[in-house]
Amino acid sequence: MLNIALLGASGSIGTQTLDVCRKHADKVKLVAIAVKSSLAFAIACAHEFDLAYVVIAESELEKSVAADAFPEHTRVLFGTEHLSELCELDEVDCVVNALVGAVGISAGHAALACGKRLAYANKESIVIGGELLMPLAAPGQLIPVDSEHSAIFQCLTGEPHEAIYKIWLTCSGGPFFGMSRAELAHVTAADALAHPTWLMGDKITIDSATLMNKGLEIIEAHHLFDVPIDTIEVLVHRQSKIHSMVEFSDGSVKANLCAADMRMPIQYALSYPGRWEAACEHLDWHAEAPLEFARVDTGAFGCLALAQDAGRAGGTAPCILNAANEVANEAFRAGRCSFLDVERIVAHTLEHMDALPVESLEQLASVDAKARSLAARQLER
User: Fold this and answer.
1) For residue 18, which phi and psi values (nearest 5 degrees)?
2) CB 220 within 8 A of CB 127
3) Which of 3, 52, 183, 361 has an alpha carbon within 20 to 30 A of 320's alpha carbon?
């Protein structure tokens, strides 16, 4: 049995991980979960999965919990400081980090440092702290859960690193594919949340609409697979059936194709190096539409270029990029800025903060806070 701690259990990746746990209850045991504030969800999970530990990140909710709400043997902890404790539990073999944003970096660091398998969906912490996290990861210890990076990971299995010619990072293009900047100036958060192929959380769905998500994934792939930023090229593929490709020096290309269902890469991160029975339907390839490709319009979607520049600069530049984007993304969802303001706010923040060599988690936390403050001031303009 693989004993799992699931961080971000109530989110999109978290709930789909629970589906995999239900499907393969003979292979995995859910030991612990962490949620931000979803008390009813956490209570239900504790009873269904007979959990040993639950962390509620918002500590003020402790006074809202009835004494008999959780099973008697379930230890319930309140506060984000306990996230890393779950990763270090002796009874946990694998940590699924499905937290959203920079908050996940300390937990990821703790899991790697104590030798746990890390199924990683928290791309932001690889983006900002890859220089600290990747040296801790032994071969096969950190398994990406993002569909694109899972695809690349699978394509590279058994291949020599020096044979990599190019990584093709596929992209649905989001809901605004084909729009001009003039048209993008008038789109709303509701428009942006209508993703054409994937069911995801609100933050990542907005990032997909701005293409910032693809920029973050470029930086993530740079760290995960130890390749230069310019070796990674984004390719629009509207059908979302090819999840990414690797082109090798001899001209051959390997691609990973499957349904647009996150349970596939989640399950692979748990089953690696084996494969389990599918947790979703197999595709009927006779019935699939022709696969089509297009170039990204970087003139309309400037966030992608900002991320590429930050990735090339390295150091704390990706941390600044991510922090500013989280502020702008949240503001756009709340109606406090326009779609194109996201790009403007991120660009301003990057321009007015120096990129420094990465030294520690504490330094990254400080840079993150300064970048958020600077980005927030732009919302007042």
Assistant:
1) -60, -35
2) yes
3) 183
